[in-house]
Write a structure and sequence with these properties.
By secondary structure, this protein is an alpha/beta fold. 21% of the residues lie in helices and 33% in strands. An eight-stranded mixed sheet has the order 3-2-4-1-5-6-7-8, with helices on both faces. Strands 10-11-13-15-14 form a five-stranded mixed beta barrel. β6, α6 and β7 form a beta-alpha-beta unit. The chain starts with 6 loop residues before the first strand and ends with a strand.
Length: 317
């Protein structure tokens, strides 16, 4: 069986007129990025600014424009990659399309190497207020958020809070109209003591802990944690295991979902589905089918009955 070729994907997201085209144009003009690799540039929306291929550092860039989301299919992407013999793919993604549509269409072997989000600082907070789900969708997995056209009288904390509600991992940059870039240095202290013998997770802090543990699992390895959770009995948890977790609101009421970690516990069968429990457990980081790879896996020390909290839905901020 032949090995599937790995194709690096460089993904640029954001809404119309957010600066994606300008950044990609400058990137493809940079000889350090372009070294004769055959590049497929997928353009999923066209704004006022257009590409100038004659200024690219190489003539091996081929542009394909998607006129609508119906063209975002596995068949089309695979065909264009084969036609261009692409060594890598650069995607200017449409801000009105959910990223799941792209991931579902990506051919086998395509791997997102970098994901950046661009936003016009003047319209970002309005977009977030009116289309929170679409904003959250782009923030949750990006490595860097660039707020361009950022003015001195704008409050960085407003933008910082929106990003951190979706991701504690993403870097944040503010670019002013004169081209000066300042990186966000606002600290986000965790609301629990990681150095305590038992790390006590407050009943409203489960979402923050969940996100931080997913983003930086290594710092929790070997730690003992105690937290309030609901019981989820599922075969996906694995042998002698259940999933303690909470219902969390990611961006809006319609987007509430159950999140938790697989937890081995010999007495799991006696636990009632959706019962509230206080779990004390050791954290490890290893392969588990629920992740289809490595992730945080708990080993329960004790599981005790608990009362339902006042707020049974948590958030990630």
């Amino acid at each position: 069986m032949s090995k599937v070729k790995e194709v690096p994907v460089f993904l640029f997201t954001g809404f119309l007129e957010s600066g994606k085209t300008k950044f990609i144009q400058e990137t493809l003009e940079d000889k350090r990025f372009c070294n004769k690799e055959k590049t497929l540039l997928l353009v999923c929306e066209e704004g006022e600014e257009e590409y100038s291929p004659e200024q690219f550092a190489t003539d091996t860039v081929v542009i394909r424009v998607l006129e609508g989301q119906e063209q975002l299919t596995n068949e089309n992407l695979a065909k264009w990659a084969q036609e261009t013999k692409a060594d890598r793919v650069v995607i200017e993604y449409n801000g009105m399309w959910l990223l799941d549509a792209l991931y579902a269409a990506m051919p086998e072997g395509w791997v997102v190497y970098q994901e950046f989000m661009f936003a016009d600082a003047g319209t970002f907070l309005s977009y977030n207020g009116n289309m929170r789900q679409l904003v959250y969708d782009k923030l949750k997995s990006c490595e860097l958020v660039v707020f361009n056209r950022f003015k001195p009288d704008m409050d960085k904390m407003e933008f910082h809070k929106v990003v951190r509600a979706a991701s504690r991992r993403a870097d944040i940059a503010y670019e002013s109209t004169d081209g000066k870039v300042v990186y966000d240095d606002i600290e986000d202290p965790l609301p629990f003591d990681l150095n305590a013998p038992i790390v006590e997770i407050g009943e409203d802090d489960f979402g923050i802990w969940y996100m931080d543990c997913q983003d930086e699992p290594q710092k929790y390895v070997g730690k003992t944690v105690r937290f309030l959770a609901q019981v989820c009995q599922t075969n996906r948890a694995g042998k002698n295991s259940f999933v303690p977790g909470r219902f969390a609101m990611t961006c809006c009421v319609q987007d509430i979902q159950f999140v938790g970690f697989p937890c081995s516990y010999d007495g799991y069968k006696a636990l009632e589905q959706r019962a509230w429990v206080t779990v004390t457990a050791k954290v490890n980081y290893k392969f588990h089918n629920i992740y289809r790879g490595k992730g945080p896996v708990l080993t329960a020390i004790s599981v005790e009955p608990a009362e339902k909290p006042q707020n049974d839905v948590v958030t990630f901020s």
